[in-house]
Design brief:
The protein has one domain. It is mostly helical. Helix 1 packs parallel to helix 3, helix 1 crosses helix 4 and helix 2 packs parallel to helix 4. Strands 1-2 form a two-stranded antiparallel sheet. The chain is globular. The longest helix is centred in the middle third of the chain and has 24 residues. It has seven helices and two strands; from the N terminus they run ααββααααα.
């Protein structure tokens, strides 16, 4: 999933714990891994070095292409947080978001930046977390199916949002 999707789903789950920001953060993290098990699309990272036989060795190489990726990832991250606040506004509106929405969104996104940390520091507990992340991640590759990938994430966001708003 892209970070926008992870952020919005994390925010939706975080809303379930309005007075418990740490629980909202943890629920967002759990949501990340659960929805990574669903087949989904990723945008291309130009600095990615993939090891198909041994994905635990994947890396992001720091250089010019990494700067391009950093802009894409940063935009995706910011959009995930911003859309979370727009979809789940608090009584104070966009500029005063719910603490639970914020921490749920951060939790929903957090496991992916932790993968980058693993790629640059391959030690415990990051190694075990990366193994788990790879294990739970869907093995079905639909990255070349842009339309299906993007539309399916938009529909998934819409479904999660509708369910969250019905519950709360």
């Amino acid at each position: 999933m892209i970070l926008v999707t992870h952020g919005i789903v994390g925010a939706a789950v975080g809303r379930l714990f309005p007075k418990h920001p740490i629980v909202a953060l943890l629920a967002g993290i759990v949501s990340h891994f659960l929805i990574d098990a669903i087949p989904h699309w990723h945008y291309k990272l130009f600095s990615a070095e993939r090891h198909l036989e041994n994905p635990i060795q994947d890396d992001l190489k720091i250089g010019k292409s990494f700067l391009v990726d950093l802009v894409s990832i940063g935009t995706d991250f910011a959009a995930g947080i911003a859309f979370s606040f727009l979809i789940f506004p608090s009584a104070g509106g966009f500029w005063h978001p719910s603490v639970a929405v914020f921490w749920g969104a951060i939790g929903g996104i957090l496991p992916d930046p932790i993968q980058f940390l693993y790629m640059k520091w391959r030690h415990e507990p990051l190694r075990s977390l990366q193994r788990f992340h790879l294990w739970i991640h869907s093995k079905l590759d639909i990255d070349k199916k842009y339309f299906v990938g993007i539309v399916s994430q938009v529909l998934f966001i819409a479904a999660v949002t509708a369910i969250s708003k019905l519950i709360l």
